[in-house]
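step 4 of 6: structure.
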Amino acid sequence: MLEVTNLHASVAGRGILRGIDLSVKAGEVHAIMGPNGSGKSTLAAVLAGREEYEVTAGSVAYNGRDLLEMEPEERAREGIFLAFQYPVEIPGVNNAYLLKAALNEVRKHRGEPELDAMDFMALVKQRMQVLHIDQDLLKRPVNEGFSGGEKKRNEIFQMAVLEPKLAIMDETDSGLDIDALRTVSAGVNAMRSPERAILVVTHYQRLLNYIVPDVVHVLSDGRIVKSGGKDLALELEEKGYGWIEGVAAQVGA
Amino acid sequence: MTTLAPAEAYADAFEAVRRTAAAPDGVVDLRRRAFERFTALGVPTTRLEAWRFTNVAPIANTAFTLATPAEREAAKADTAPHALGIGAGLLFVNGRHVAPASDVSALPDGVEVLSLADVLASDANETRAAVEARVASGAGIENEAFTALNTALLHDGAVVRVPADTVVEQPIQLLFITSPPPGGEPVMTHPRVLLVVGENAQVRVVESYGGGDSPYLTNTVSEVIAGPSAVVDHYKLVRESPTGYHIGAMHVRLGRAANFSSHAVTLGGAIVRNDAQALLDGEGVECTLNGLYLANGSRLVDNHTTIHHAQPHCSSHELYKGILDGEARAVFNGKIIVAIDAQKTDAKQTNKALLLSEDAQINTKPELEIFADDVKCTHGATVGQLDEDALFYLRARGLGLEQARSALIHAFASDLLNHIAVEPIREQLDDLLLADLPGSGGGSFHVC
Ligand SMILES: Nc1ncnc2c1ncn2[C@@H]1O[C@H](COP(=O)(O)OP(=O)(O)OP(=O)(O)O)[C@@H](O)[C@H]1O
Ligand SMILES: [Mg+2]
């Protein structure tokens, strides 16, 4: 589904990603772990199409297409969903408007009829129940005045409504208490399917107790320095990121 | 066809009005004085402080002739987009009341919604006397050239009088349309609106302005007098065509505990100047002046407001927001005067502009003249661009660039839109902002 080859990217003239190779198949869950500033969010942003990140080398194929050629909205309509590490507050735009517009764009793109207000509400209510989200949220402006946890939950709620093919979750666990973490994880697990791939970006192993990955990658200084099974996350937790920096030094050498 | 100099064209217009538009002696005399003032003042130049950023040379250099009455049929196409379908109202085409199009039958007893020309031409009666007394005060003619010109050429417009203790539920729409002559030569209209609201009465009035696609000038003056505890909600929708110039002055006088709000919405016009002056002339007045303006291309929109706190315990709130694209320019000047006796004044002024292009520009200036000592006065101005992070967020959810921009632009205006209580106006603006906004450069906000 996703083939990242030798991806280099820079922002404001500074190289951040320095040769990423990553292959994700439909049905898989990959975790990407790494210390602060290692480039996790940059990778996510490049995949989602953020223009200020300049790809200086390498390629990304998504279902056989050149992803880097596509506008952000086209990527979204083709099924890529980024749950933001820092969801943006948008005063004056309410959640219902955003969700309905987004959903109908995706549906139009797939050649499906747009949902009318009633079908839309039915779908949305069902998803809200699963994620324990209060219905008032729909009338509220996007993320405005939300707590950190509410913002993260709202991202997963949007994801549940839009049903992406490739979901990228950027530190969705940070700021969540354990109950919220369970709810969110349950929501994500419910979406696991043979047609869907999930990329979980996280600092901590804890989330991976709930969303068990097929593959774990460790990112350091813009490169994937180690990949392995779910046990790699445990090892990392145990030994700390200092261990990885040692590994990185060896890889770099 | 002979080419008239602008000054000759104004003189001809004055002669024509003097000869043909019947009026009581007091008004005839007022016109003459006003024309003298206008001749002395001339069309303002940028050398005047109040017009420093607003160059009306295109108006000064054009010889506008008085628009002639148009056929109702001919004006239909121009009128349709502006009609709000809210029932009661008057239609004016080329500055003249078009009787058949206006329906004021459903109004409560005692409420008058009349053509000014009819009132002035009628035999002496209470209404005429009241109007004459009101108009004859000649507000603004000493220093404001355009108000002097409007007064010199005063012949038609709307008179709305609401008796004390009367609540008018339905909004009253006053629709002013300029229908261009077949040859497209520049024409002008000088509508006058008089809104007098009695003690403890309530009314909502919508003034709408529009026109066809050849050069014209709308030079309008509105006077609002609200009695004690009156509640007046005033809307002004400027949707002139891209070739239309609009100069509008509104003089408001508010009595004790009156509650007045104004919503000045400017969507069209090559050059638009809205002057709003409110005198808070009793204790406990609440005055809200809100404004929303959209401009693109090389259009210019100028909002000048003056709020004069003359009495204690009054509050005023002002929120103006502008959305500028292309090479559009805007001016906002907000003057707040707090007289020495006006203790416990609470005045708040905010001006925000959203610039969608690098070439768009706004000049904004608060002017506070505070003579009382126990007052709360705040003012703030911000100029910003669309939030790139928000734009990306929306696109990452699948919204196209245009739709994402529209959503954010609409969001910028949303607090003002939420204050608009006349549903059809809000719907029109919602549609316009969400569906019709052009990208940078391009189209026009004027929708016909
Ligand atoms: N827009 C930007 N402008 C300048 N530098 C940036 C920008 N975005 C990221 N960087 C820099 O790129 C590096 C990688 O940032 P990135 O956000 O990808 O790291 P991360 O692994 O997600 O970190 P964290 O765990 O803190 O979220 C950092 O040094 C950061 O300062
Ligand atoms: Mg990050």
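step 5 of 6: annotate
 - The pocket of magnesium ion (ligand 2) is lined by residues A 40-41, 85, 170-171 (CB under 6 Å).
 - The radius of gyration of chain B is 21 Å.
step 6 of 6: archive
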